[in-house]
Amino acid sequence: MLFSRFKTHLPTPEEALKGRAERDFTVPDRHTVLGNPLLGPYPEGLEIADFGLGCFWGAERKFWQADGVWTTLVGYQGGHTPNPTYEEVCSGHTGHTEAVRVVYDPAVVPYTALLKLFWESHDPTQGFRQGNDVGTQYRSAVYTHSPAQQQAAEASRDAYRTVLRDSGYTDITTEILPADPARPFYPAEGYHQQYLDKNPAGYCGIGGTGVSCPVGVAPAPEVTDQ
């Protein structure tokens, strides 16, 4: 009960946990499905996209199944505490959301297709929750790495907002903000990386609205849950 107030209240920098200068756990070298390195630097020509759409176990699988994605990893983003742990993030005292970093080849899968997959894989109208998962760490978010990404993300939000409202949903609560340097991505502990590959019957709280997102001219990659 000590942390209950922060389940639906983002802490200020002063309220947030102090954190640490370096993470106190190791991150695996390679992706268990794609076989590529998890941490950069990445090959020339690849780009990075960061998304928060609820529990990162199921969210990561959505993206690693997409054509053109080179690697994925899960972590914490958008908060104040440097190098947080999973327990600290879940306490609500760091301000982070659970995020998926997607490293992709834009010649194969455009950013707009990743945005379409993002919007359609969760309900972006729920605020500090996704389904039965309640807390600030489950909020919907897009953290962008260029002005072009920022513009595309905002345009996709505006387009999806219209069709969601027409379908009876409330307004989108997704935060769309630049990633660096104010919102660094902190990799999560090793056991979270590709969790649903290691635990095929593990928990997956990801579920969309069933409303198609009219983003871009390219179709989203076909994704089927295992």
Automatic annotation (TrEMBL):
One of its GO terms (cellular component) is cytoplasm. It comes from Streptomyces piniterrae. Belongs to the MsrA Met sulfoxide reductase family. One of its GO terms (biological process) is cellular response to oxidative stress. The gene is msrA. The active site is at C55. PANTHER family: MITOCHONDRIAL PEPTIDE METHIONINE SULFOXIDE REDUCTASE. Its EC number is 1.8.4.11. The keyword Membrane does not apply. Residues 50-204 form the Peptide methionine sulphoxide reductase MsrA domain. Has an important function as a repair enzyme for proteins that have been inactivated by oxidation. Catalyzes the reversible oxidation-reduction of methionine sulfoxide in proteins to methionine. Keywords: Oxidoreductase. The keyword Oxidoreductase applies. It comes from the Bacteria. It catalyses: L-methionyl-[protein] + [thioredoxin]-disulfide + H2O = L-methionyl-(S)-S-oxide-[protein] + [thioredoxin]-dithiol; [thioredoxin]-disulfide + L-methionine + H2O = L-methionine (S)-S-oxide + [thioredoxin]-dithiol. InterPro entries: Met_Sox_Rdtase_MsrA_dom (IPR002569), Met_Sox_Rdtase_MsrA_sf (IPR036509), MsrA_MetSO_reductase (IPR050162). GO terms for molecular function: L-methionine:thioredoxin-disulfide S-oxidoreductase activity; peptide-methionine (S)-S-oxide reductase activity. Pfam families: PMSR. This is Peptide methionine sulfoxide reductase MsrA.
